[in-house]
TrEMBL record:
Protein name per the record: protein-tyrosine-phosphatase
SMART domains: LMWPc
InterPro entries reported in the protein's UniProt record: LMW_PTPase, Ptyr_pPase, Ptyr_pPase_sf, Tyr_phospatase_low_mol_wt
Taxonomic placement: Bacteria, Bacillati, Bacillota, Negativicutes, Selenomonadales
Every Phosphotyrosine protein phosphatase I domain range: 2-147
Annotated transmembrane regions: none
Active site: 8, 14, 123
Originating species: Selenomonas caprae
Amino acid sequence: MKKILFVCHGNICRSTMAEFVMKDMVAKAGLAEEILVESKACRTDEIGSDTHPGTKRVLRAHGVPFTPRQARQIRRTDYDEYDLIIAMDDENMRDLSRLTDGDPQGKCHLLLAYAGEAREVADPWYTGNFEVTYMDVSNGCRSLLDKIRPMR
């Protein structure tokens, strides 16, 4: 089973959105038994909080199912457990580099790199634009799924 972990600053907006978008895409592709998707925070600001209302609103608008959850922080042991750790921005990548002693196995990547874009997923906590974030997350997740999809 391929295990993917999405991370962002607080695990209430971007990484959570990516988790639910990717789970929906994986389920629709019939790959739920082959690909595990989860999300966590790089920082402790929002630990224990549920998904941000703006994220819930945009997921509902696009028909993406989600469940209640609590933000969790990434741990060093997660590096061994997951095959890919997908970050939303450069700050997340720096946090991951420190946590993993430089990412020696090359597991950590920016989400939009999978879509051929050298930029970050903007944080709607600051921009207020959850729709733009959704479009980036959806594009990145679709491209990521295309790259990891098992050969059939």
